[in-house]
TrEMBL record:
Region entry Disordered, spans: 1-28, 59-109
Keywords on record: Isomerase, Membrane, Transmembrane, Transmembrane helix
Biased composition (Basic residues): 1-10
Composition bias, Basic and acidic residues: 11-20
PROSITE patterns reported in the protein's UniProt record: CSA_PPIASE_2 (PS50072)
Boundaries of every PPIase cyclophilin-type domain copy: 126-280
Protein function: PPIases accelerate the folding of proteins. It catalyzes the cis-trans isomerization of proline imidic peptide bonds in oligopeptides.
SUPFAM superfamilies found in the cross-reference section: Cyclophilin-like (SSF50891)
Low complexity bias locations: 68-86
UniProt keyword annotation of Lipoprotein present: no
Record's protein name: Peptidylprolyl isomerase
Length: 283
């Protein structure tokens, strides 16, 4: 017998997937428009449930992250603190704007798979260090090493917070719209990290996981990624490539506690979450 909670999660995943499909269509239209106007092809990574993550993290929580925002049953405003009651826990962003550089193909592999790498997000809410899994997701880690070295993530907003069904913060889009990317895509990796999917079609992405958002199709990751602040049921379709440290989880919890802007469980975070600087270091 399907419980109410299982049904709610199923609906949330289905909603997220629908949203992701809409984003894919929007990205296609945007690509055509950009090609006509400026000859620039923009590759979208909606993710996080941005996202299929919540049904929910296909390139847009950002997540998320299926289209959790479209498919899940309506969630009462109590799922997120009222705007009047929430004080922004984060500081003002540093001066600067997101970059606009794009690349036609992914970078050549240069990382050492046996080495330890840390991806540190210096945000307006605090530092979020992430231990990267170079051995299990070398293509993904290599791409983030390249993009961070180019300052790609600097001054970008984390544009999506999902607080119902799945629990993720989605970042990595320089446009802040859920449809931006670096101009190239990368392959899926490490999809068996949390075991095989059960009858629900999902596995549990554990709190502290950092995974890639995508368009809902295989091998369509770009630059968008999502940070899981609470265990979340998701299809094993999003490359897990890092783990947030304990100190980083405190910052992420602070962001999540402020809630999201719509009161429906899926929207822009109320906290001003901007990545002032992101860098990958080798140890």
């Amino acid at each position: 017998m399907v419980t109410k909670d299982q049904r709610r999660r199923q609906l949330a995943r289905e909603k997220f997937e629908r949203q992701q499909q809409r984003r894919v269509q929007q990205r296609k239209r945007s690509t055509v428009r950009n090609a006509v106007i400026g000859g620039v092809v923009a590759v979208v990574a909606i993710g996080l449930v941005g996202a299929y993550a919540g049904g929910a993290f296909d390139s847009d929580s950002g997540k998320k992250k299926s289209d959790a925002a479209n498919a899940s049953p309506s969630v009462s405003a109590s799922a997120s603190p009222s705007a009047a009651a929430v004080k922004d826990p984060c500081a003002k962003p540093a001066a600067g704007k997101p970059g606009t550089q794009q690349w036609k193909k992914e970078p050549a592999q240069t990382i050492d798979k046996s080495a330890q790498y840390t991806f540190t997000l210096t945000t307006t809410c605090g530092a979020i260090p992430i231990a990267l899994e170079a051995a299990k997701a070398p293509e993904t880690v290599n791409s983030f090493d390249f993009l961070a070295g180019k300052g790609f993530f600097d001054h970008t907003k984390c544009h999506r917070l999902t607080t119902s069904g799945i629990y993720v913060l989605q970042c990595g889009d320089p446009t802040g719209s859920g449809s931006g990317g670096p101009g190239y895509t990368i392959g899926d990796e490490n999809l068996t990290a949390f075991g095989k999917a059960g009858a629900s079609g999902s596995v549990t992405y554990k709190a502290g996981t950092v995974a890639m958002a995508n368009t809902g199709q295989k091998h369509t990751g770009g630059s968008q990624f999502f940070l899981v602040y609470k265990d979340s049921p998701l299809p094993p379709s999003y490359t897990p490539f890092g783990t947030i440290t304990a100190d980083g989880m405190k910052v992420l919890s602070k962001i999540a506690s402020a809630g999201e802007s719509t009161g429906q469980g899926d929207g822009a975070p109320r906290a001003t979450v901007v990545i002032n600087k992101a860098r990958v270091t080798k140890s």
